Amino acid sequence: xxRAINLSVNGVARTDxxxxxxxxxxxxxxxxxxxxxxxxxxxxxxxxxxxMLDGQAVKSCTMFAVQVEGSEIKTIExxxxxxxLHPVQEGFWExxxxxxxxxxxxxxxxxxxxxERNANPSREEICRGLEGNLCRCTGYQHxxxxxxxxxxxxxxx
Amino acid sequence: xxxxxxxxxxxxxxxxxxxxxxxxxxxxxxxxDTLHVVFVRSVYAHARITSIDTADALAAPGVAAVYTGKDxxxxxxxxxxxxxxxxxxxxxxxxxxxKVYFVGHPIAAIVATDRYAAKDAADLVMVDxxxxxxxxxxxxxxxxxxxxxxxxxxNIAYKLTSGEGDIxxxxxxxxxxxxxxILHTRLAPIAMExxxxxxxxxxxxxxxxxxxxxxxxxxxRTQLAIMIGIPENKLRVITPExxxxxxxxLNVYAEEALLGWISMQLGKPAKWIETRRENxxxxxxxxxxxxxIEVAFKNDGTLTGLRYSVFxxxxxxxxxxxxxxxxxxxxxxxxxxxxxxxxxxxxGCFTNKMATDAYRGAGRPEATxxxxxxxxxxxxxxxxxPADVRRKNFPAADEFPFHTATGLDYDSGNYAAALDKAxxxxxxxxxxxxxKAARAEGRLVxxxxxxxxxxxxxxxxxxxxxxxxxxxxxxxxxKGDSPHWRFAPRPGSGNFxxxxxxxxxxxxxxxxxxxxxRYGHSPIRNRNLW
Lengths: 157, 530
Ligand code: FES
Ligand code: FES
What we know:
The complex is a heterodimer. Chain A has helices at residues 24-31, 87-94, 104-117, 123-129, 141-156, and strands spanning 3-9, 12-18, 50-53, 56-59, 72-74.
């Protein structure tokens, strides 16, 4: 039996009827059409599905949509504002922090949370902060540099 | 031609859509009325299927169809392009027939209105198995283990000896020899985006479009047209954004043909997105060689012969290039060295596993491992510096073009200069001193050295009659912009050569890649510059 959920996604209020077993990532991708959030493992291992839930980076492949009742969600599609890239997005572009781009939305969401908690992280802190996100293409070095770029960019503002 | 782009740091034009979450991978493409496919796969590595009951699955809510092996006889076998002498090629149907040969072997396809319904129904399919002895060890497979494909009589798919020079004389007259067992662990390629297929058939136009997360849309089009039995000009393969491949998407898979066929049967779009578990079970694996190397050499470290006898773990079926991969090892066994006699003896064996195939270097890194390991053994045996053993065996700069005993001609090179430079940059002499000091303190510090020669961007040639040509088209539209159309997919690579050759700005060379309407090839073996 379907249940109603009320939430806000990228600043837009939503009310939808969903099956209780519908995964959050499928709600975002299939119901709302926000396909920037990817699925890489379905088991909380890879981080490709990471979204912001009330300011916290969470893996949306292992949450039900009904669990986010009343919450505010921000997906990768909500990161650029008024056509301006988020500093982390800019860092990924500037520092070649992506190749195939499949892991990238999850990486950006996690990195944004990292910088919100620690505006000037060391390389080690960046590595630790991104531990839950896997990338198969880049070898991570450029991703770390992308986050460093975003940190210095934000500090300079 | 001035080089403005190759090797230069360039902001990629594809990045904005990727970092904003606006790019389209296969699963991001939505078509109205799409049916979703879920597979029932074998939980046994080797078993006879005694019965399949699909009645409950068919009656489940939202289910449009359930197909098993007997329904798909009209789809041709999964192709193998390796044409080795005497190669045994099992009949590889898109769904299991009376036996399953590996965990993950597809048995039934469930088609339903959404993937939750399809998954529910898949759980209702009852398969009865009679389990059979399993062969996982490649040497056991070669030496009298349970026969996997009964009609072949044994598990040996092929035996091949390659190389030039008098190998027996080299060993008979050698001052010294060394020998070592070498393992190349079987692995799963694991692109972050699993495989996925979306197919849409227009019955009126009799046209089929297949979107697949593949590295080879053009080859796939040809092969799918053969498998499904439709004219090639009625089939279009589109590769949208690809979330990594690493060789695992350089193939023609059962699911790709099945999805096209299902869309034709039901007159609706059909989509299948691989789960990570399926990806590990039923997408090709890499490596899987178990071999012995023997090296013959003189007291001064000069190599006189190299023999590599290897069992290649092919898995239970051949995928596109499965049997050919170990032969690439054979081609590269000379590495960067002058070795007058080389012999490779391959025994390709069937085992109860998914097929091995092209994974990152596809047989060639295996060769590097073998020859470099061999040189290290020589260095240890003679108590020589491993860099000196390598330098001793390089062809000199004036010896190029240089013919190897594996049958290749290296056109140019100066390996000694490259090694000198690398040792200089690394401050090798100092590193050795630090190592000595560390060891005196009881700490173990290792220094590894390897050289590497690569055979890339294979096009049809004397050494390797495979590959195929690339094609690209540049069109200037009436408005005067210069859309640059290019026809190889982009599993994570940019394309710098186009912009360079066309002397356009990077931004202006907009690309349309991976659409089989115009024939081309693929980014295999770095031919499009990753
Ligand atoms: S898809 Fe959610 S963590 Fe991998
Ligand atoms: S860029 Fe391909 S997985 Fe990270």
